[in-house]
Amino acid sequence: MAPTSPQPLDPQSLPDHDNLPDNPHAYCVRLTGPLFVQTGRMIAYYPAGGGTIRFEPLTATSMTAMVAARFSSPLYSRDWVVADGQGHVLLGDRGYDINSYDLDDGNLTVRAANLLAFDAGLELKESIIPGFLTLLGTGKFLASSSGPVVFVEPPVRVDPEALVGWADCPAPSQHFDAGWMGHFLGAARGALFGTRSGEERQYDFTGAGTVLLQSSERVLEDPHVVRRLEAEVQQLGPNQLRHLAGVIQSELQQHQQ
């Protein structure tokens, strides 16, 4: 092996709760209790003391009471597992940066696609904002981001695609710029979907707290958005379905341009 090759890691050299050395894209957790992990994010693990680490789907777990008390989000229950045992677990998320956060009797709402793992000291609920989850209590969690995370204070307006989450402040409202609203109010011209710049909608944060932004507008794909829309489509009538089909067709045309 060349003298400049990276030093291989082993259970003695792995960090207990930190990114791997010189690697912001992989994180090592030392298990001391149950850890909720999003499916597909575990890249390796080292059991300790000749034991094992179990990864149980939430829908088939032996820890039913604990899961029911800590995970209150049926929409996402099929996409998470509980890791339990003793040892080290390495996590990654498609090459995105990974950071650890501590909550101390607090609350933080994070984009569901960015949430990688959280310990059983925290309780998870669905946010009233679609695509976001809220963590409550005291404990650690991991989240990924496209580039380093930027922390800002309200009042602030942020691009929805750059938003990772927010802590200790009210849920945001949506703000549309005056130009877009003008087009919307004059939609009889039929050019509504052809005039967007991509910057006309922002989330508007007010009050005290902290807003977390990633360093780009690159959004992690969230399969749950489609799942939620599928459930809501069943409540629509024929006229509403035809209108929705037109909206989807317009969106597809925008992506093909």
UniProtKB/TrEMBL annotation:
Highest taxon, organism lineage: Bacteria
Location of region: Disordered: 1-21
Signal peptide: none
InterPro entries cross-referenced by the UniProt entry: AIM24, AIM24_sf, Trp_RNA-bd_attenuator-like_dom
Name of a matching Pfam family: AIM24
Name of this protein: Biogenesis AIM24 protein
Organism placement in taxonomy: Bacteria, Bacillati, Actinomycetota, Actinomycetes, Kineosporiales
